[in-house]
Amino acid sequence: MIRLYRNTDQKAVMSIWLQANLKAHSFISADYWQSHYEEVAKMLSSAELLVAENDGRICGFIGMYNEMIAGLFVDEHYRGKGIGKMLLDTVKQMNSQLHLQVYKKNKQALHFYQRESFSIEKEQQDAASGEIEYVMKWVKKKL
């Protein structure tokens, strides 16, 4: 089930955020993610967040700022089960276009977004991590 984020979800969401970033971005030090933990936790209240819930347990979430996907994260125990696609499909229904940034070295996420009809708009260096990232865009097809 996809639903809106509640403040009581913060602990579970942040656990998924940290675990997913550490696993997907092994090319960035763990200290980097841990040092941003509190900052991200504070930003949750100002973002538009949807969570995926399975049997009362949060198994993934997507964060939005207008048409920008700030992050899409799925608990490692639920990966490959369509949770990420379900979250992405939900925000696709609500928007005519979407933008996101993904690290070039995060091949799994890059392939996922390309499979979901996102195209690379440009390549740039992420100022915070120093890593190269792609800016990607999806546009809803007109019927």
Automatic annotation (TrEMBL):
Q: Which Pfam families match?
A: Acetyltransf_7
CDD domains for this protein: NAT_SF (cd04301)
Swiss-Prot/TrEMBL keywords: Acyltransferase, Transferase
- Give the protein name, as stated in the record: Putative acetyltransferase
Higher taxonomy: Bacteria, Bacillati, Bacillota, Erysipelotrichia, Erysipelotrichales
Under PANTHER family, the record lists: PEPTIDYL-LYSINE N-ACETYLTRANSFERASE YJAB
Acyltransferase keyword on record: yes
Q: Which organism is it from?
A: Dielma fastidiosa
MF annotations from Gene Ontology: acyltransferase activity, transferring groups other than amino-acyl groups
What is the annotated signal peptide range for this record? none
Q: Does the keyword Glycoprotein apply?
A: no
